[in-house]
Amino acid sequence: MVPSHEICYAAEVEALATLEVAVRPGWETIQQVLIATIEIPDGSLVNLSDLKILLPSNWNTRPATDDSRLIAREFLTAIASTPAGTARPIGLRVPSVLSSTDFNVLLDPSRKSEMSASVTHKIPFNAQRATGSYLHEETKTQAKSWSKRQSRENRS
Questions:
Q1: Percent of the chain whose predicted confidence (pLDDT) is above 90
Q2: How many domains does the chain have?
Q3: Is 82 in the same domain as 135?
Q4: SS3 63
Q5: Closest by alpha carbon to 9, among 52, 38, 33?
Q6: pTM of model > 0.85
Q7: How do residues 126-144 score in pLDDT, each as one tens digit?
């Protein structure tokens, strides 16, 4: 088991952040999602290749493996060993397991004084809607309504 390291896990886009919430254990109990914007200094976000971090071969398996959790530790280790006087990154862009075109961001929480965060809005979160059962029920209702309307029109 990989020892835990504190890390701030964020997403570059709101839709991915919301999706990340929906796939976590316990998501069924969430009533609302708070969307926050985190501002970090320009040039303080890096890619894996900038720090010579390689993704483990099983980085995108579900549930997450200890190997995928090593990415955060490698990031924190890499920035801790940055020579004095050299700019140290605050965040690391990592590919999303859930979206092939989006990125999550690992942020170093020890540098929170260099970041500013503010809640921009709240999204009501309905577990039925997130699982599609709400949509499914709505679709069935619409289909019944359409069927009844068609029956009435055919009788006329």
A1: 40
A2: 2
A3: no
A4: coil
A5: 38
A6: no
A7: 655 555 544 444 444 444 4
